[in-house]
Write a structure and sequence with these properties.
- It contains 11 helices and 15 strands.
- The protein has 312 residues and is of the alpha/beta class.
- InterPro entries: Metallo-B-lactamas, NDM-1-like, RibonucZ/Hydroxyglut_hydro, ST1585_MBL-fold.
- This is MBL fold metallo-hydrolase.
Amino acid sequence: MDNVTPLGGEVYEIDTRMAGFSGITAGYLILGDRPCLVETGTSTSAPVVRDALTSLGVGPDDLATVVVTHIHLDHAGGVGDIAGFYPSAEVVVHQKGARHLADPTVLMASAKKVWGDRLDTLFGTLSPTEASRIRALDDSDSIDLGGGRTLSSHYSPGHAKHHVGLLDSATGDLYVGDAAGVYLPQTGDVRPATPPPDFDLRTALNSVSLFKDLGPQRLLFSHYGPVSDVSEILDRSAEELRVWVDLTRQAHAQGMDLDHAVAMVGEKTRQRYAAPAPEDAETVRQMEMISGVPFNVAGILHWLDRAEPSSG
C-alpha cells in the first residue's frame, strides 16, 4: 500500500490520511511476536489503518496491543473503532487518559468547543472502549512486545498531562507523540506544540530533556515520521519552545489580546522556518491547521495567565 513505509526492525509507518490528506499524522505498527499499533489516528482514519494492517498480514485476532502517546483526537480518536476491529487487542494509555477512552463524553464536548463545525471533518467521533480492555500505565511502565522485546513508557507531560513517550528496547526508537513538537520532513524544521489547557514550559522542557537522556537511536514523530538526528532535533525542540514562549510573553506583557499576539508571534517566527517546496505547501498548510500559531499562542497565554498573573 502506498501509505505504508517499512522503517526496519519490523516497524512500519502508516500514513493515517487524516481528513483525507497525506503526511499529517502517522501511526506505527511494530510487527513482532505480539503486534502493537502505536497511535490510531482519528476515528475517520480507522478504516485506513485497518487496511494497512491487513496488507501487513495482521488479521482481526492478531493485533495484541494498541497504545497511544496521549488522548488528543488526532492520536487516539480511532481507539474505539480499532478496538472494535481487533477484539483481542489490549488498549494502553497513561492513567490520566484512561477514563476518557472508556467514556469520551467530556473529551468530545471539549473538542467540539475548540473545533466547532470542523470537528466531524477533521476527527470524527471517538467511540468508547470497554473499560475491561483498557490498561492504564503508571508514570514508568512497560508493554510486552513478545520475544523479550518491550516498549517502555516514560511520562512526558508539558504538551498534555496524559502524555507518554515510548522506547522500543529492540530498535532504540522513541515514539515522541507531540512532546517534542511537530517535525516537518518537507523542510527539516521542528516546531512547538503548545495547545491549551495543559502546556507548561518547565514541564515541557523537562520532557524533552528526558527524551535526550533516554539515548534513543531514532525519533518517531506522530507529526511526522522518523528522524535520525536525535540530539540536533531535540535541542531545536527546546530552543523553539523558549523562543515561542519569550515572544508570547512579550505580547502578554504588552496587554495584547489573542488575535494581536498571534499576529505578532506569527510574524516574528516565520523567518525561523524554511519555505516548503511548492509541491509540499499544501501538506504544510494542513499541518498548520492542527498545530499552528493560534493554538500554540493560546496555550502559552493560558499558561502565562497561571504562571505569571502579574504580567499585562
